[in-house]
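To whoever is on call:

I kicked off a structure prediction for a single chain this morning and the downstream step that reads the tokens threw a length-mismatch warning. I double-checked the sequence; it's 121 residues and nothing unusual in it as far as I can see. Pasting both halves so you can look.
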Amino acid sequence: MIHLRTRNEIMAWLEKYAPTPTIARAMQEGKTELLGVFKRIPPKCEMGWVVAVTSKHGITYHVAIKPNQLRGGYWCHMVSRVPWEQWMGDVLSPLDKLHNTIYKGDNPEIYEELKNVETKK
């Protein structure tokens, strides 16, 4: 079983196993943003990462990457809505810089604000 330990490993894995060829192409030509780890991502409400992939044409796809409990490894799928109320980046120790990077995502201050807004709804 492989372990995704860095942002680069997550992005390389997603480019290889993207849920559609369009998303794989958007990863090569556009921008990616690691949104961090989420406690429960629908439809099965499992923990995993969410990555925003924006194509060169400005279309954004949100892709969840989750551990595959049965076979080991990971699986991914598109999500229609980012579950900000489930974002976990704010619960980790600031001393763990390696995991904070992949758990908190690329812009944790923005994500924490989005989580607070969603939680108050």
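Update from on-call: the warning came from a stale cache, not from the record. Cleared it. Sanity check on the structure: The first helix runs from residue 7 to 17.
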